[in-house]
């Protein structure tokens, strides 16, 4: 029987995607405790879920006076493990917060031996993954969000319950897009490119022989983009500037969401806030209480709701 009326502890809660998931599944929540220190995302949670009990800094967990917890969820900071970072792994002060997750889970297991938990993080080097696996005592599962939504977002999940196999959903990026006509653009051949991309980024795009070509370090020197493909032409810190194309899917959202799409009108443009929310499976308008720059950071750091719903649907008593 599916658990109902559960008490939840969400660590590194962000904007409470966990609460969104449980609502989506129709699982009744007695109390939702959230540990988060980013004020902007806390305000989003307060706006959408005013009954959430906020606990603050995860390192202060020994000061919390909590009842029996049924479910602990969290996505510990990934900066030490990400391929985009410095590769400090557990030496990164943010990523070593994983050990707080371990201590909290072990503490609550003593109170409730039937406790369920789920940890999410980026795909990482096997040696780092194995450390997390050893501490949690469960093997990870790798799921890319693109099986359920048009968003390329590979992630790793550790749970102490079995996750059902996920079936591919044929959901193309074009089906998610708003009807937008660019007014401020640069013409590149027969296509329009949003002016808000930098000049250097736009230089990666060409229109030749009826193709939209994005410069890339491959044999031809470019890759071809088709309508409905995700486009990433923003690499401000890269020594070798090169674009990327994701077929029928968005590129992975990061904390700037500085990516775009070759849309149904033959334009290359940035995603709207509504589209970014839909890419993460978040209800349209969920982040509207915060400034767009903060909302993009929250979405880039957040969970794909549909994927977490698939995982938590497997929880049993």
Task: Give descriptors for this structure.
317 residues; Rossmann fold; six-stranded mixed beta sheet; 16 strands; 22% strand; elongated
Write structural notes for this entry:
With 317 residues, the protein is an alpha/beta fold. The protein folds into two domains: 6-170 and 302-312, Rossmann fold; 179-271, no CATH class. It is 23% helix and 22% strand. The chain has eight helices and 16 strands. The chain has helices at residues 17-25, 39-48, 98-111, 126-136, 199-202, 273-279, 292-301, 305-312, and strands spanning 6-11, 29-35, 53-54, 71-74, 116-122, 140-144, 154-159, 185-188, 191-194, 205-208, 211-215, 222-225, 230-232, 244-246, 260-262, 267-270. The strands form three sheets. Strands 3-2-1-4-5-7-6 form a seven-stranded mixed β-sheet. The radius of gyration is 21 Å and the shape is elongated. Residues 78-89 have low confidence and may be disordered.
Query: Judging from the principal axes of the Cα atoms, what is the shape?
Result: elongated
Main sheet: strand order: 3-2-1-4-5-7-6
User: What's the helical proportion of residues?
Assistant: 10-25%
The count of domains is: 2
Distance between the termini: 6 Å
Low-confidence stretches: 78-89
Largest sheet: 7 strands, mixed
Classify the oligomer: single chain
Using the coordinates shown, work out and report the CATH topology of the largest domain.
Answer: Rossmann fold
Beta fraction: 15-25%
- The helix tally amounts to 8
Q: How many β-strand stretches? A: 16
Secondary-structure-based class equals: alpha/beta
